[in-house]
């Protein structure tokens, strides 16, 4: 089982994301990585092995500071446990980054389809397929949330994916189907994770989008959509209390 952490707000996303990953390292994993949006670009670092190896890489090659980012620890299920297959996975242009928990059942067919349109793949992961699909949809529609909704409609399996794009530096987008994804609500900041333990020391206010949803997270708002793009009302609940569910 992999773990996802994302952040958008007023603090250093790198510090928040790495701290969130540290709180999830009790599970078995074999690689870790981060992607940070900064100065109109997308900076990444990822390493096979324990989180300490990623920390060493970040000390050796610091990433720029930015208010939006994602991180991941991976237990290899498709592709070996190496730097190339670690998340985040990027599109060919390096402008979209994706982290993923779960399995994309139709990844082979989608990979073949994308290769036929000229996409070149660097990893063996199903996650990279999502990054290429998202970048392609984004280039057509120009809206990252709509692009994620389109991609979500093409994916099969049980999964949670979270993505960022260099051209929308204040936005995280996510999709989930039959996999846990939670949003932590802070003061002028939001957290996204596959487990609320990643941010429980930062906020106790949590949103659970639901089993088949697309989510847009900005510094000042969260938008939850059903697969048809219709907004879904959700209410935060406090950790330790029952979820309020859709409103």
Automatic annotation (TrEMBL):
Pfam families registered for this protein in UniProt: GATase_6
Entry EC number(s): 2.6.1.16
Species assigned in the record: Streptomyces yaizuensis
An example molecular function term from Gene Ontology annotations: transaminase activity
InterPro entries found in the cross-reference section: GATase_2_dom, GFAT_N, Ntn_hydrolases_N
Record's keyword terms, sorted: Aminotransferase, Glutamine amidotransferase, Transferase
Keyword Transferase part of the UniProt annotation: yes
Catalytic activity: D-fructose 6-phosphate + L-glutamine = D-glucosamine 6-phosphate + L-glutamate
Residues in Glutamine amidotransferase type-2 domain copies: 2-228
PANTHER family in the cross-refs: GLUCOSAMINE--FRUCTOSE-6-PHOSPHATE AMINOTRANSFERASE, ISOMERIZING, GLUTAMINE--FRUCTOSE-6-PHOSPHATE TRANSAMINASE (ISOMERIZING)
Broad enzyme group: transferase
The protein, known as: Glutamine--fructose-6-phosphate aminotransferase [isomerizing]
């Amino acid at each position: 089982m992999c773990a996802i952490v994302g952040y958008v707000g007023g603090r250093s996303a790198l510090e928040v994301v790495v701290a969130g990953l540290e709180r999830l390292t009790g599970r078995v994993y074999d690689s870790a990585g981060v992607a940070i949006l900064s100065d109109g670009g997308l900076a990444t670092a990822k390493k096979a092995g324990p989180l300490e190896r990623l920390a060493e890489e970040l000390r050796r090659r610091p990433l720029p500071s930015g208010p939006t980012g994602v991180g991941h620890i991976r237990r290899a299920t498709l592709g070996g446990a190496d730097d190339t297959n670690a998340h985040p996975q990027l599109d060919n242009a390096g402008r979209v980054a994706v982290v993923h928990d779960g399995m994309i059942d139709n990844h082979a067919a989608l990979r073949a389809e994308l290769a036929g349109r000229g996409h070149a793949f660097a990893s063996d992961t199903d996650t990279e397929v999502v990054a290429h699909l998202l970048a392609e949809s984004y280039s057509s529609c120009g809206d990252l949330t709509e692009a994620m909704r389109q991609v979500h409609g093409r994916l099969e399996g049980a999964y949670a994916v979270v993505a960022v794009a260099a051209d929308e530096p204040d936005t995280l987008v996510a999709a989930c189907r039959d996999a846990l994804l939670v949003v932590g609500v802070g003061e002028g900041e939001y957290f996204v994770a596959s487990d609320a333990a990643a941010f429980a020391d930062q906020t106790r206010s949590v949103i659970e989008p639901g089993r088949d949803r697309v989510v847009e997270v900005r510094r000042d708002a969260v938008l939850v959509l059903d697969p048809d793009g219709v907004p879904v009302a959700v209410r935060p609940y406090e950790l330790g209390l029952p979820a309020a569910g859709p409103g």
